[in-house]
Amino acid sequence: MRCFPWFPIVFILSTIAAFAALNRAELRADPTKPPPESIAEFFTPPKDFAYDFGSFRSPLKFHDGSMAKTPEDWKRRRKEILNTWHDAMGSWPELITKPKIEYLAKERRENVTQHHVRIEVIPGRPTEDAYLLAPDGKGPFPAVVVVFYDAKTGIGLGKAPNRDYAWQLAKRGFVALSLGSNPETYLPSKQNPQLQALSLHAYEAANCWTLLASLPYVDAAQIGIVGHSYGGKWAMFAACLFDRFAAGAWSDPGIVFDETRSNVNYWDPWYLGLEPGKERKRGQPTKENPSIGPYRKLVDAGRDLHELHALMAPRPFWVSGGAEDPAMRWKALNHSVAVNDLLGVKHRVAMTNRPKHEPTVEANEQLYTFFEWSLSK
């Protein structure tokens, strides 16, 4: 990260304090702390999938075929995974040291102060509309970044029900930043992309973390991220690629590559399938209409998203599974459990399941309980 000499010294000190808080969080994390009884069962796979690792290559296996057997080995293997995925998707620009925020309007909603804001998430681009919600009190509070197509849905003012994560968590004592973005966002352009769109969105979310961490009423060590569907993909990539997020929750994004499911569409150009100079017909990959871009290269190399999940260790994550993420996804999640076992921690991987893609009140309540547990001191 780059700091400039003309930045006020107070910001430099606050940034150092934020990173120090993160380190303290890692030290105080209690690997024996069990989740609440109401959600404890979801940290264990169903019997049908216990110890079933499917056909996924172990994320503990180095490129040379050797296995990570110690926590020190895992540090090296983790770096190898991260480099592999960044090489495939494109390297991030430098993170924004001090993201700009412009306060536009303020209103009271129950026990929450809601700010309509514009924030800087990509250097040199117009600021994005967002909503910053803060509960009553001085804090410091845990916080969440909420991502979706539009910012209003996250605060309960959109058309789709049960996607108001920012509003519901703010009422429960979290600072919440609700951000929306067009999936087809490219840097610097679609014709000349520096990185794939989904990785760019993860980069945006990382800058949101920095913004929240700079607020005096936010506990910088306790910031999570959540999203549904497209937002779930966004939240998953952000949490996995940016290790300062303390926890992540992903609602039915499709947590592995699955070409039998049309909505698990990582092959599309607005996710991982953009290849300049080439076009393909929309729809699932077939022999006649094969996938292209980094997605194709990752699949051909035997890569899958379980490698990204493993980057979360030892941080906890929650999969709110629906039609795209049924119980069989435990075959992928078991690999993250194995990584956490190597690190000596429990209760770091959980999944609930519902029949349909849409979030339900019950599934969301379980997700909120997860954040109340995982982002508490």
Sequence-ordered SSE layout with sheet pairings:
Layout: H1 9-28, H2 71-89, E1 101-109, E2 112-119, E3 128-135, E4 141-148, H3 151-154, H4 165-171, E5 175-180, H5 197-213, E6 218-228, H6 230-241, E7 247-251, H7 293-300, H8 306-310, E8 317-321, H9 330-343, E9 349-353, H10 361-374
Parallel strand pairs: 4-5, 4-6, 6-7, 7-8, 8-9
Antiparallel strand pairs: 1-2, 2-3, 3-5
Helix pairs in contact: 5-6
Number of strands: 9
The CATH topology is Rossmann fold
Strand content: 15-25%
CATH architecture call: 3-Layer(aba) Sandwich
Radius of gyration: 20 Å
Overall 3D shape: globular
Number of helices: 10
- Helix-strand topology string: HHEEEEHHEHEHEHHEHEH
Sheet with the most strands? 9 strands, mixed
| Mean of all residue-level pLDDT scores | 92
Side by side, the strands of the main sheet go 1-2-3-5-4-6-7-8-9
Roughly how many Å apart are the termini? 27 Å
**What is the domain total for the residues?**
1
Question: CATH H level: which superfamily?
Answer: Alpha/Beta hydrolase fold, catalytic domain
Structural class: alpha/beta
Low-confidence stretches: 1-29
Helix content: 25-40%
Output the CATH class name. Answer: Alpha Beta
Structure write-up:
With 377 residues, this protein is α/β, with parallel strands linked by helices. It has a nine-stranded mixed sheet, sandwiched between helices. It has one domain: Rossmann fold. It has ten helices and nine strands. The chain starts with 8 loop residues before the first helix and ends with a helix. A hairpin with a 2-residue loop joins strand 1 and strand 2. Helix 5 (197-213) packs across helix 6 (230-241).
